[in-house]
Design brief:
- The complex is a heterotrimer of chains A (437), B (366) and C (292).
- Chain A is built from 13 helices and 13 strands.
- By secondary structure, chain A is α/β, with parallel strands linked by helices.
- Chain A has two domains: 243 residues, Response regulator (Rossmann fold); 140 residues, Rossmann fold, CATH 3.40.50.
- In chain A, the strands form two sheets. Chain A has an eight-stranded mixed sheet, sandwiched between helices. Chain A has a five-stranded parallel sheet with strand order 2-1-3-4-5, sandwiched between helices.
- The two termini of chain B are 36 Å apart.
- Chain C is mainly α and 292 residues long.
- Chain C has one domain.
- Classes of the chains: A alpha/beta (437), B mainly alpha (366), C mainly alpha (292).
- Chains B and C meet through helix 5, helix 6, helix 12 and helix 14 of B and helix 4, helix 9 and helix 11 of C.
Chain lengths: 437, 366, 292
């Protein structure tokens, strides 16, 4: 009994060993089993960076375009000499918006593939799973794709990029306060940190007495009819939405059904005209009642931190469109593609600043020493030794005929309740003629 | 100490030595994967016991993993308990939840039970966003895990995590193996094969069913605590329906009712999807296609295995090595029969399979 | 009061879709004693085919017909190829196989159509109807949804009652062995049952996709609630599925409106557990336990 049992277990163990060793051998031969390079991910000819992205799962629609767009810009740079002769290789792995998978793929990138840095890690709950690990392993964690203000401090190796939700909420809130005085305001927000941070920023500016109703939704429940009905019943005339595009569109449709016609003010996250128009386009094809997809997006007020796609005279839009048409033509040229290219541009800027022999610590100090020009962003970055947040401002825009048209100046502010929302007096520098920083 | 317990302990020690050797040989990322595999082995083993031994279907063990994970995170964050106390406590808390569910589930059979557990897997994680103050909402709870100082400053954390999780997994497997060979295990097989006959011999069918749920939930809870310890973040996004489906896939693929099968299932779940994506991308397929390919492959595997190889990998291995090894092996199922292929190896027989409409079997009501 | 009315009417629309899914599940359950976890995914795929046809020809009704046809073919093919081998096996095998189908179909949809949310047209206007100046909170499309599901249920009832195909379906479900002895081709009849279920599922997908947008996982939550409706109503009762769907849709709308959108899945679970505790076979089931 004993003997046969032990034989059995040893047979199982032997098979397991064989499997794991085979896997281990294949990885070590491709990874860094030999002499490790002095700086991980940097060779004479290549910069290797990695990212975790939701390529499948609930967050894939839209967000899955970003990494391909970044890669397109990197290919453009590689075709024009690279960064000090090094080509950028961008490896992005799917985490399906599941933080457990994020923890796994990021460790794979760092421990097995030995990337130089993690770039544009997407998602707040997903990135929170790896931020402590990356900082303790001293891996640069640059330009996180999330509007959480948690990256601004406490993590020496991590940097945000896009304007955070609180700042954007304040800018939108200030606009609502000054343009819709006396009207009843309602909030429609996603029940997570994106929505609650946005509402926090809005509440710093909009007086509580004006807010007639706050309705939250969760992405798994698409039936937001009750929320729309509640907003209508409270007499809301201006609804401020911190929602993803699908739910902005759903609220629009629900409003149509119950005969409620408020002014829509929507966070930049949920207001890309191309995405919204695409979601609503099927309702333009009906016979009889004229409900036009574009018409449904007409008049939506939003904020923007990159030049609007409709502004074809803007040198950045022209540059990114050219890169898109050459390297990423299958994707529509929409807000996600613009985002991907713009953040890739910022990374190349930082690598140029890090010098001919970049180190991991060198990249970090290149960014936090300040002085990174704002690039395609409409307002400067606030990078410093103590603040790793990112963009400071945005403009207000209105969707007209499928494009966002800027209204007024760019506004800058901070994340505190008392900080004022002030117009930005500088100008955005033009895109470099070569298309590279 | 009985012979069975001694046998299992020896096997565990041998396995432990092998794991230690592997963890030192392989790189730090493979250590992390070993920890992940340990997590899934425990979760799948618990599910395999529930389905293979007691004949109850659950598609909701992901929810019990969530219970264990959140319990572990709260204990470590607020009470600063050490890991060897946190793991059993989390398993116990999840076992309690399993008891509650089991009591409700004991009256249900087959598809009703499967559907109720499906809804449990979908609904329970939303509690975390309902009470964000306690559970951290969508962002979850963050933990810090470091290797003990006496191992040295350069000791990779992932290796420590692999050790801790492997020890926990081995202990759990020894306990499960003993349980499978005990009177409780035999009683489970009795109520699985013919509940009416079992009831006639005096077995309390409902109580045995609840016990199976409790054990299965305890395993899932322990796995959840191990997951929290490995990934250092507990948030609702990790406990979707896909997790419960992955556990079911692993259990079926590995071979229901078999502990070695749990190992095969865990290996497949952790190692194969990234491998498939890598192969797909290196063949030039777009990232969208390459990312969706493992999902489609999962589906094909589930269908193919169930139709062609219902005994899973372990069953296939057993058939291959059959002539060489005696019938009394480390599987929990009845060892005596050589089942023909195409039948579930230990006969999840349901004598009333083709019931006329209008009859519905209510089992286990006391 | 107006809010309450809005909640009720809004719940009816989604409730009818749950009823349709529930109805298709009941069809399959009665025939083969299998709970088809891939019902939602089959509906999703049929709806994608409809979208392709609509984008090609510009005609909604051609797409509508294409989806229904796809549902029939898909149901028949799946029953013949994938389900037949596990029909007489223990229930676990069918559970695993249909879950495998669910995963496979979603993966295939992701591969062929990508994960983007697609806009899906509604048959009629989605702008709400008005009684004078008062908005009624329902649109012509909502009325169509309710009418379509009821018509489908009625057609099924008529078919079961008055046609020989329906009689054969009922015979095979009641006692397959006896039916075989009487010359009923049980295998063909089961395929027919699955084909009909595929048709109704495709209808559900067409009706709900304007409100959920179309993407590989879009029918997941609809399926879960449709299944809940079927269980609440009783898995062998088609009328129960309809009533269960309506009750569930309206109740969950109240929960979403008065208590919060995030509590809806929990309340669905609570409702399911409550019904199964009190009546384990469902509210309208005709069985009351084992007959000795």
């Amino acid at each position: 009994m004993n003997g046969s049992h032990r034989t059995r277990m040893l047979a199982v163990a032997a098979t397991v060993i064989a499997a794991l060793v085979a896997a281990g051998c294949s990885s070590s031969s491709s990874g860094g089993a030999g002499a490790a390079p002095a700086v991980p991910g940097i060779t004479k000819t290549q910069i290797l960076i990695g990212s975790h992205q939701p390529l499948t799962g609930p967050a894939a629609p839209g967000y899955s375009e970003i990494s391909a767009a970044s890669n397109a810009y990197f290919q453009y740079v590689n075709a024009h000499g690279g960064v000090y002769g090094r080509k950028i290789k961008y490896t992005y792995l799917d985490d399906a918006y599941d933080p457990s998978k994020t923890a796994s793929v990021v460790r794979q990138l760092v421990l097995q593939d030995s990337v130089y840095a993690i770039f544009d890690g997407l998602g707040t709950p997903t990135h929170l799973a790896v931020v402590n690990y990356l900082n303790s392993a001293k891996v640069p964690d640059v330009f996180i794709a999330s509007g959480c203000d948690c990256w601004a401090s406490g993590h020496p190796y991590s940097f945000g990029w896009q304007i955070d939700y609180i700042r954007e909420g304040k800018i939108l809130g200030a606009y609502v306060k000054s343009h819709f005085a006396g009207k009843k305001i309602g909030f429609f927000y996603q029940n997570d940190e994106f929505g609650t941070d946005g509402v926090k920023g809005l509440s710093y500016e909009i007086p509580a007495s004006q807010v007639a109703s706050k309705q939250s939704y969760v992405p798994i429940n698409v039936n937001i009819g009750p929320q729309a009905a509640a907003l209508k019943a409270a007499g809301v005339q201006v609804v401020v939405c911190y929602s993803i595009p699908a739910f902005t569109a759903l609220l629009k449709l629900a409003a149509l059904k119950i005969g409620w016609n408020p002014t829509f003010v929507v966070s930049s996250v949920g207001a890309d005209p191309i995405t919204l128009g695409g979601l609503l386009q099927a309702f333009a094809k009906q016979g009889g009642k004229t409900v036009v997809g574009n018409q449904l997006t007409q008049g939506i007020i939003t904020a923007g931190y990159l030049p609007t796609l409709g502004n074809t005279g803007n040198s950045w839009i022209a540059l990114f469109k050219k890169v898109h048409d050459t390297y990423d033509a299958k994707a529509p040229f929409d807000g996600n593609v613009l985002y991907g290219e713009a953040v890739a541009y910022t990374f190349v800027q930082a690598m140029v600043k890090a010098g001919k022999n970049p180190t991991r610590a060198g990249l970090v100090s290149a960014i936090e020493s300040g002085g990174l020009s704002q690039g395609a962003a409409v307002a400067p970055y606030d990078y410093s030794m103590t603040d790793h947040g990112g963009m400071m401002g945005a403009y207000i825009g209105v969707i007209k005929n499928g494009v966002v048209v800027q209204q007024g100046p760019v506004w800058t502010t901070d994340t505190t309740p008392g900080g004022a929302v002030t117009p930005f007096t500088g100008t955005q520098p033009p895109a470099p003629a070569s298309g590279m920083p | 100490m009985t012979m069975t317990l001694l046998r299992h302990l020896v096997a565990a020690i041998v396995a432990g030595a092998v794991i230690w050797a592997l963890s030192v040989q392989l790189n730090a990322f493979r250590d992390y994967q070993m920890a992940e595999i340990a997590v899934y082995v425990v979760a799948i083993a618990g599910l395999s016991v529930l389905i293979g031994l007691s004949g109850q279907i659950s598609i909701g063990n992901g929810a019990f993993m969530a219970v264990g994970a959140y319990a572990a995170a709260l204990l470590m964050l607020h009470l600063n308990w050490p890991v060897w106390a946190v793991f059993p406590a989390s398993a116990a808390i999840a076992a309690g939840a399993g008891g509650v569910v089991g009591v409700a589930a004991a009256r249900l059979s087959g598809p009703y039970l499967a559907g109720a557990t499906l809804l449990l897997a979908v609904a329970l994680p939303s509690l975390a966003t309902r009470f964000p103050g306690v559970f951290g909402g969508d962002q979850g709870l963050s933990l810090t895990v470091t290797a003990p100082a006496r191992l040295g400053a350069t000791f990779p954390t992932t290796r420590w995590q692999a050790w801790v999780c492997s020890v926990a997994a081995l202990i759990a497997l020894v306990l499960l193996a003993n349980l499978g060979r005990s009177r409780v295990g035999r009683n489970w097989r009795a109520i699985r094969d013919d509940p009416v006959a079992a009831a006639l011999t005096g077995l309390n069918v409902a109580r045995l069913r609840v016990l199976a749920f409790v054990v299965s939930a305890a395993c899932a809870g322990l796995a959840g605590a191990m997951l929290a310890y490995t990934t250092t973040l507990v948030s609702p996004g990790s406990f979707t329906l896909s997790l419960s489906i992955a556990l079911l896939t692993g259990a079926v693929l590995g071979g229901l009712g078999s502990l070695a099968g749990a190992l095969w299932g865990a290996l497949v779940i952790v190692l194969v999807p990234t491998y498939v994506t890598d192969v797909a991308t290196s063949h030039g397929l777009s990232t969208t296609v390459a990312a969706n390919l493992p999902i489609a492959a999962y589906g094909v595997v589930l269908i193919a295995v169930m139709i062609l190889f219902p005994d899973g990998i372990q069953g296939g291995l057993r058939r291959l090595a059959g002539p060489l090894l005696p019938a009394n092996l480390t599987r929990l199922a009845s060892p005596d029969r050589q089942q023909p292929p195409g039948e579930l190896s230990d006969g999840l027989t349901s004598p009333d399979r083709r019931q006329p409409v209008g009859e519905h079997q209510e089992e286990g009501t006391t | 009061m107006n809010e309450f009315l809005q909640f009720t009417l809004g719940g009816v629309s989604f409730g009818m879709v749950y009823a349709a899914i529930g109805l298709s599940l009941v069809l399959i359950w009665r025939g083969t004693r299998i709970l088809n976890y891939s019902q939602g995914a089959m509906a999703m795929l049929s709806t994608y085919i409809a979208l392709t046809v609509i984008n090609h020809t510009g005609s909604y009704w051609e797409g509508f017909a294409a989806a229904l046809a796809t549902g029939v073919v898909l149901g028949a093919v799946i029953e013949r190829l994938v389900i037949r081998p596990v029909e007489n096996k223990p229930p676990l095998n069918a559970v695993v196989v249909t879950i495998g189908l669910l995963v496979l179909l979603e993966g295939l949809a992701g591969i062929f159509y990508g994960g983007q949310y697609r806009s899906f047209p509604a048959a009629f206007s989605v702008t709400g109807l008005h009684a004078g100046a008062v908005s009624l909170g329902i649109s012509p499309n909502d009325l169509f949804v309710a009418a379509a599901v009821l018509a489908a249920a009625l057609a099924l009832a008529v078919m079961f009652r008055y046609t020989s195909a329906g009689l054969r379906l009922r015979a095979a479900a009641f006692n397959a062995y006896a039916a075989r002895l009487l010359g009923v081709r049980v295998g063909r009849v089961l395929t027919l049952g699955w084909a009909l279920a595929g048709l109704i599922g495709a209808l559900a997908g067409l009706l709900v996709s304007p409100n959920t947008f179309l993407y590989p996982a879009s029918m997941d939550s609809i399926f879960v609630l449709g299944f809940t409706a079927a269980v609440i109503g009783g898995l062998d009762s088609p009328a129960g599925a309809i009533v269960g769907g309506l009750i569930l849709g309206v109740t969950l709308n109240y929960v979403g409106g008065y208590l919060g959108s995030d509590l809806v899945p929990l309340f669905g679970l609570a409702a399911l557990v409550l019904v199964l505790m009190l009546r384990p076979s469902g509210l309208f089931s005709t069985s009351h336990g084992r007959q000795v």
